[in-house]
Amino acid sequence: MPEGKLLTFVKDLSVLLEQNPSEEIIFITGRVLLEKLVAVDDWLPEEFTKPHPQYYQQYLLYADPLDRFSIVSFVWGPNQKTPIHNHTVWGMLGQLRGREKETPYYRQEDGCFKPGISCTNLPGQVDTVSPNTHDIHVVENDMKDQASISIHVYGGNIGRIQRSVFDPITGAEKSFISGYANSVVPNLWN
Question: How far is CA 53 from CA 127, 150, 181, in A?
Fold first, then answer.
């Protein structure tokens, strides 16, 4: 499926990852690559931009054959958001269209989760998550009347990775595998 700008991003990220860089280098150099990809919203095919009326969509754009990374478009309808969840691998989140709010959550001594300070991502901006720093958060569409789209790049095939959602009050953890809206792999999150 990769064409044009996306194919260039895939090639450049592959070259970077072939050097077996540290996560810090991935985030420094990879961020620049992803910023370039999301700088102009003219390359994502229409079929990967369609929101669902009830829950966000996660469309697989590219899965590295060596499972080093995957590229996914997240399409959020108005008022849609994730539960509190983790990733277990590094990730870069590039805002392509609209506006998204990301809120980190922190486990407290009693096991519950409390929100940290939210940030809003605008088109062209890139944020990162990592289990080495912090990767438990909630992401939501910050637009009340239109869809938002972000391009996520993860250090593995995120649709096949076992992750967790968390109850904010009890801290109870539930495993899930997200799958993709455009594949036969079931989406166990929604």
Answer: 26, 17, 13
DSSP, collapsed to helix, strand or coil, labels residue 31 as helix
Distance set, CA 137 to CA 27, 93, 134, 164 (Å): 18, 13, 8, 11
DSSP state of 50: P
Encode pLDDT of 73-84 as tens digits: 999 999 999 999
**E strands, the chain, in order:** 57-63, 70-76, 91-97, 100-107, 113-115, 119-121, 126-129, 137-141, 148-154, 163-166, 173-176
Per-residue model confidence (pLDDT) at position 2: 42
Please state whether 125 falls in left (phi above 0), alpha (psi between -120 and 50) or beta. beta
> 162-183 burial, b for 16+ CB within 10 Å, e for fewer?
ebbbbeeeeeeeeebebbbbbe
Q: Which two tokens stand for residue 68?
A: 């080093």
pTM for the predicted model, two decimal places: 0.92
**DSSP assigned state of 85:** B
Handedness of CA 21, 136, 157, 32 (dihedral sign): negative
- Confidence (pLDDT) at 149: 98
Contact 132, 138 (CB under 8 A): no
Contact 13, 27 (CB under 8 A): no
> Which segments in the chain show pLDDT lower than 70?
1-3, 184-190
In one letter, which amino acid is 3?
E
